[in-house]
Amino acid sequence: MHELSLIANLFEIMEEKAAEKNAKKITHVVLQVGKLAGVVPELLITAFDMYKKDTIASEGKLEIKEVPLKILCRDCKTEMVKDDFIFICTKCGSANLKTLAGMELYLEKMELEVD
Amino acid sequence: MPNKKTKEVMVLEDLLGSNKKIADQIRKKLTDKGILTINLLSSPGAGKTTLLESLSEILVPEYKMAVIEGDIETERDADRIRAKGIPAWQITTGGACHLEAKMIGKLFPKIPADLDFLFIENVGNLVCPASFDLGENIRCVLLSIPEGDDKPKKYPKAFITSQCLIISKTDLAPVLPFNIKKAKKEALEINPNLKLLTISAQSGAGIKELAEYFMESLQKIRRTNA
């Protein structure tokens, strides 16, 4: 359960950004979570709801946008979305691939309440 | 009643950004000193500490090594390493399931500058440690024969983020239904660049090859530095 450590990092970023904007409250938070980020979205939400008490986001809601694993084959230039974790090009069989998306663990945006 | 206004702000910041920043600093400082850092990942009981004990018999005294031990509780692993005459520091996380770069950073002043190899034995866990860069040059994942050959597919992140897979306890292969070929094939499917090694600390098989892999990797970073 390393999700709590990640949520602690998230709050550090959220609080810093909210202070820059003189926000009174953070009402909505959107995270991008890649399929290969190595986290469980439900646990992130549980950790967020535990952590938010007595913070600027005490009434905030966490929304998770799951990002599929997207691969580019460097040989045949095909882009593909992978549901399995088999890193072999589905078109030409090459293992010469580049991961384009699916590793993200990003705070995308927040909704703030200001005066 | 004051008007409440809401405002949406785009941020796009990595939750692991602060860890990555510290890890990059650690990697640069250690690599500049010509120290090769290896992060060992595995389930509990895969044989990380035993592997380090066996490696020390080949590497020492020609090379200088030190070990950072990560565990939830006790100094037991660090004591085993110290008993071999090797400097070891224990990080007890008190419950946390992984090490983070800042924990390594705190130990930094204690690490001798004339080391050749710094091994970091992560907390036994095949899930959480995979997300945290510790500033290593090489990440090695251990998979022991009793765990079963299906682990690369079940815990892909640990295998995707590693450079080396060590299949350990191969002396048990004749008595357990672990298909080494299948484990290697499935590991390569999720990470075609994995270096594959098999070892048995009991018989000593494969330990020399693993030590040679680390020695070559050390020469590589030193050549790059020169």
Key phrases:
heterodimer, A: about 120 residues, alpha+beta, 3-stranded mixed β-sheet, 3-stranded antiparallel β-sheet, 2 helices, elongated, B: about 230 residues, alpha/beta, 7-stranded parallel β-sheet, 8 helices, about 20% strand, globular
Sheet having the most strands of chain B: 7 strands, parallel
The structural class of chain A is alpha+beta
Cα radius of gyration of chain A in angstroms = 18 Å
How far apart are the first and last residues' alpha carbons of chain B, in Å? 69 Å
Question: Portion of residues in helices of chain A?
Answer: 25-40%
From the alpha-carbon coordinates, what is the Rg of chain B to the nearest angstrom? 19 Å
Mean pLDDT of chain B: 95
Largest interface: A-B, 35 and 35 residues
How does the overall form of chain A come out from the CA principal axes?
A: elongated
Spatial ordering of strands, largest sheet of chain A: 2-1-6
Strand portion of chain B:
15-25%
Strand order within the widest beta sheet of chain B: 4-3-5-2-6-7-8
Total E-strand runs of chain A: 6
What are the secondary-structure elements of chain A, in order, as H or E?
HEHEEEEE
How many H/I helices of chain B?
Answer: 8
Helical proportion of chain B? 25-40%
Which helices and strands, and how do they pair?
The complex is a heterodimer of chains A (115) and B (226).
Chain A (H helix, E strand, L loop, with lengths): L2 H18 L4 E10 L6 H11 L9 E7 L1 E5 L5 E4 L14 E5 L3 E10 L1
Parallel strand pairs in A: 1-2
Antiparallel strand pairs in A: 1-6, 3-4, 3-5
Chain B lengths: L4 E10 L2 H16 L3 E6 L6 H12 L5 E7 L4 H7 L5 E5 L8 H7 L9 E5 L16 E7 L6 H4 L1 H5 L3 E5 L11 H11 L4 E4 L8 H19 L1
Parallel strand pairs in B: 2-5, 2-6, 3-4, 3-5, 6-7, 7-8
Helix pairs in contact in B: 1-4, 2-8
